[in-house]
Structure formats: C-alpha cells, structure tokens
C-alpha cells in the first residue's frame, strides 16, 4: 500500500508541474498585462532579498556590480521577478559549496544587460543548446527539479523582447546574459 505521505508528495509535484506549464501557456497566449515600470537595480535587489537565506545556507558569496541602471517599461513586474528568481535559484542550486555568484548590470555594446555568473558545475558544450527545452535535465545534475525553470525564463524573456544568452564551462561555471 502506498503511504499517504508518498502520494501527497506525488500530488505536490504534479501540481507544481501543472502550475508551471499553465504559466508558460498563459504567457504564450498573451494573458498577462505589461503595464509596469521598474528599475533594473530595484528589481534585482527585490529578488536578492528573497533569496538571501538560501545563499547563506549554501555558503555562497554574492557580488553585486550594479554599474548602470535601466528603466524597464511596459513590463510585467511579477513575471520579471519570476524570471530572475529562476536564474538565480539555478545559480545557487548548481553552484559548489563555498562558491560565488556575480551579478552585473551594465551597458555593453550600446545595450543594457544583466549578467548572472556562477562558479558552479557548469554545462557541457554539447548540452547547452537543449537547456531551454521543457523537461530537459542534464545527467550529472542530481538536484531535484522539473526542468521547467529555463523554459519559463525563455518564455518570459521572449514576451518582453529580452534576449537570453548563455555561456558555460564544465566545472568552472555558467553565465546567463539578459540583453534589453
Ligand atoms: N546555472 C547553472 N549551472 C549548471 N547547470 C545548469 C544551470 N542552470 C540550469 N542548468 C542545467 O539545466 C537544466 C535545466 O534547468 P531548469 O531550471 O530548466 O530545470 P531544473 O533546475 O532542473 O528544475 P526546475 O527549475 O524546474 O526546478 C538543469 O536541470 C541543469 O542541469
Ligand atoms: Mg531551475
């Protein structure tokens, strides 16, 4: 007989997967208004405040290099918050104990960008093209999750016309760049 706690866990897992898929579908169907205005540094600080505890738990040092600020207009604040949270959560989850995360906000080649660099396990070059695919999770990744974080990041970025770039070296770290 299946224990109640097991079925409860399965239910929770399924419910989280459905929620994430629904969110992606709703964004793709243009069901979210984009009427907010927020400063990039304000957004980052808000996200980091929520995540602080997890950083301490994993003994990760955060460096903020907020060189330039940028006003993001006609956006959905909640969705941008979700997008940044997913990227930083990954930077924590796939980091090494005692590792670091560097966040840059700056103008480069005439465009404002936010960079999130971690000193984690990295992603093999052969795997990198598939990481935005739904349910994709890499073999060496033993952390739990559903492989829906990055697809959500891609969808939210797409609906805000933000370009997402990724660069990674196995065992050295990963860098995500959002170009506005
Ligand atoms: N910063 C990173 N460093 C190393 N690998 C990463 C990083 N971000 C993502 N990955 C790899 O890409 C896969 C997909 O990431 P994604 O965020 O979509 O899913 P997840 O973290 O496994 O689960 P979820 O976000 O749904 O809880 C991860 O399982 C991991 O293997
Ligand atoms: Mg994730």
State mean pLDDT (0 to 100 scale).
Answer: 94
Give the end-to-end Cα distance, rounded to a whole number of Å. 53 Å
Q: In terms of structural class, how would the helical and strand content be classed?
A: alpha+beta
* Percentage of residues in strands: 25-35%
Gross CATH architecture: 2-Layer Sandwich
The CATH homologous superfamily is termed Histidine kinase-like ATPase, C-terminal domain
Strand order of the largest sheet: 2-4-5-7-6
Instruction: Estimate the global geometry from the Cα principal axes.
Output: globular
Give the proportion of residues in helices.
25-40%
Write the layout of secondary structure elements.
Elements: H1 4-28, E1 36-39, H2 40-57, E2 61-66, E3 71-75, H3 77-93, E4 100-108, E5 111-118, H4 149-159, E6 163-169, E7 173-179
Parallel strand pairs: 2-4
Antiparallel strand pairs: 1-3, 4-5, 5-7, 6-7
The structure holds adenosine-5'-triphosphate (ATP) and magnesium ion.
The site of magnesium ion has 5 residues, from helix 3.
Report on the structure:
The chain has 180 residues and is of the alpha+beta class. The protein has a single domain (33-179), classed as Histidine kinase-like ATPase, C-terminal domain (Heat Shock Protein 90). The protein is built from 4 helices and 7 strands, in the order H-E-H-E-E-H-E-E-H-E-E. The protein has helices at residues 4-28, 40-57, 77-93, 149-159; strands spanning 36-39, 61-66, 71-75, 100-108, 111-118, 163-169, 173-179. It has a 5-stranded mixed beta sheet with strand order 2-4-5-7-6, with helices on one face. Strand 6 (163-169) and strand 7 form a beta hairpin. The model has no long low-confidence stretch (mean pLDDT 94). The structure holds adenosine-5'-triphosphate and magnesium ion (MG). Magnesium ion binds next to helix 3.
């Amino acid at each position: 007989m299946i224990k109640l706690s097991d079925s409860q866990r399965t239910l929770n897992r399924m419910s989280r997967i459905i929620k994430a898929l629904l969110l992606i579908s709703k964004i793709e169907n243009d069901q979210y208004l984009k009427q907010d205005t927020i400063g990039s540094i304000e957004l980052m600080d808000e996200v980091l405040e929520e995540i602080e505890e997890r950083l301490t738990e994993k003994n990760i040092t955060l460096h903020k290099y907020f060189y330039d600020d940028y006003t993001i207009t006609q956006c959905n604040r909640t969705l941008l918050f979700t997008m940044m949270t997913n990227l930083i959560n990954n930077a924590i989850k796939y980091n090494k104990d005692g590792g670091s995360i560097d966040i840059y906000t700056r103008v480069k080649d005439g465009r404002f960008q936010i960079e999130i660099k971690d000193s984690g396990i990295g992603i093999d070059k052969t795997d990198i093209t598939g990481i935005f695919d739904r349910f994709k999770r890499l073999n060496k990744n033993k952390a739990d999750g559903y492989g829906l974080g990055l697809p959500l990041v891609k969808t939210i970025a797409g609906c805000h016309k933000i370009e997402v770039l990724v660069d990674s070296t196995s065992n050295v770290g990963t860098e995500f760049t959002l170009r506005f």
